[in-house]
Design goal:
about 240 residues; alpha/beta
Length: about 240
């Protein structure tokens, strides 16, 4: 029987942001799902909170008749994965993958910048943000990632929804939720958003050891999708 995997993108992303990792998985072995999470796509949430994100994804799982999916969450998607593990543990697989996890609440500095999220549709602001989160290996990768992130941003419901999602992403972290799952943590060793120290603490709390990809930043889904997929596949075999 094929395993089902749901890839959950992060803030400023969309389903396009996880396709590079998802495409590394053989469709003959896995059922792959990459939904747009609000504010991406054409659906808004009544409230951008743990309750409504969990309801949205639970409904997606039930509507698509997905049997015990393995959740792979990147950045803000890792928070959503943790919420599901706490609120709907029996609906998902016992294994959980957290990419570039939001291990602890972001700093006051980043929370102060939340109102600027409404400007992410501005090309200059978007490029500056992407350059900060990305550890570029070459100019082509940087250019490709910037364009892809901009393309993701073109599909958001509204600027107000972007602001509410940004606020959610800074007000919560994985540590806010309690669950019992087999967890795999994968992060870049040069992640500027979430320092090693915080990720190491989270890993200890979840009884796992984090995997750090060398010379990679927060956007490992764009920077090193093949390496990420390799570690996920290895985790799923254990």
């Amino acid at each position: 029987m094929k395993k089902s995997i749901i890839f959950i993108h992060g803030f400023r992303g969309s389903s396009l942001g996880m396709e590079q990792v998802a495409n590394c998985f053989d469709n003959k072995k896995y059922n792959i799902y990459v939904p747009d999470m609000p504010p991406a796509g054409d659906e808004s949430l009544p409230e951008y909170s743990p309750r409504f994100y969990a309801r949205f994804l639970a409904r997606y799982i039930k509507n698509n008749e997905i049997e015990k999916p393995i959740l792979v969450g990147h950045s803000m998607g890792s928070i959503i994965a943790a919420i599901m593990a706490e609120r709907y543990p029996d609906l998902i697989n016992k294994k959980l993958v957290l990419m570039s996890p939001i291990s602890a609440r972001t700093s006051k500095f980043f929370r102060m910048l939340t109102p600027l999220s409404v400007l992410l549709s501005n090309r200059v602001i978007s490029q500056i943000t992407t350059r900060f989160l990305l550890i570029p290996k070459d100019k082509n990768l940087l250019k490709k990632t910037i364009l892809l992130v901009e393309h993701c941003g073109a599909n958001y419901v509204s600027r107000f929804d972007v602001f509410k999602a940004a606020k959610f992403s800074t007000e919560y972290s994985i540590s806010d939720f309690s669950f019992e799952k087999e967890v795999c943590i994968i992060a870049g060793d040069k992640d500027r958003l979430m320092p090693h120290k915080k990720t190491d603490i989270l890993a200890s709390e979840l009884n796992t050891k984090p995997i750090y990809i060398k010379n990679a930043g927060h956007l490992i889904n764009y920077e090193t999708p093949e390496q990420v997929a390799k570690y996920i596949k290895k985790f799923l075999k254990t």
